[in-house]
Specification:
Number of strands: 6
Number of helices: 6
Largest sheet: 6 strands, mixed
Mean pLDDT: 89
Radius of gyration: 18 Å
Low-confidence stretches: 1-13
Shape: elongated
Strand order of the largest sheet: 1-2-3-4-6-5
Length: 194
């Protein structure tokens, strides 16, 4: 599988370069070496998950893309992710990364329950990955800024993708699976950080 650049010039209002690897979109702020290194790091992490941890990859990255065949609790809806977007920016409040769901449209408005195709978004805090502040990769590895950065993009990013996609997978099981519904309900207010 190769990379596909989805645009070669960022729009003035968003300032992102968009790439696609397999069926995952990746947004980076620049198209220089550092931006391309982020794209490569995501592709590598996806391949590690897909090849070394196929059950986790299947469950989190593939099963979250299809609607459950099980009906949800009455009066609720089901979700799936039609797209996954991974971005590198400095707008996240998290030290490393956070994820969320952008609600899509109901694909079956006349059905017994809503069937929403959504966008899963995972945002990495680009500045904190550099390992020079007392946040992000510095806290994890406590080495030189360069070593913190390289170690995270080699090792930590795999675990972060797994962690954030677990959040997204649980979201797709809400209203269907009792444990997932309990976990989603127990999370802190969406306005605050966990």
């Amino acid at each position: 599988m190769g990379f596909t650049i989805l645009n070669d010039q960022p729009a003035a209002h968003d300032q992102f370069y968009f790439w696609a690897y397999r069926d995952i979109d990746i947004a980076v702020l620049t198209d220089d070496d550092s931006g391309q290194y982020y794209v490569y790091s995501i592709a590598r992490a996806i391949e590690i998950l897909r090849c070394r941890y196929p059950k986790a990859y299947q469950k989190l990255f593939m099963e979250s893309r299809v609607f459950s065949t099980q009906a949800p609790k009455p009066g609720t809806f089901i979700n799936r992710y039609s797209k996954i977007l991974i971005s590198f920016n400095n707008n996240t409040k998290a030290s490393i990364a956070e994820s969320g769901t952008v609600l899509g449209t109901n694909e079956d408005p006349s059905g017994a329950f809503g069937k929403y195709s959504n966008l899963a978004v995972i945002s990495f805090h680009q500045a904190n990955l550099l390992g020079s502040t007392n946040q992000g990769s510095k806290v994890l590895y406590d080495k030189s800024p360069d070593e913190n950065y390289i170690r995270y993009l080699r090792e930590g990013i795999v675990e972060t993708l797994l962690h954030e996609m677990l959040h997204r997978y649980i979201e797709t099981r809400r209203n269907i699976d009792e444990l997932a519904t309990t976990v989603v309900s127990a999370r802190p207010n969406k306005v605050s950080t966990a």
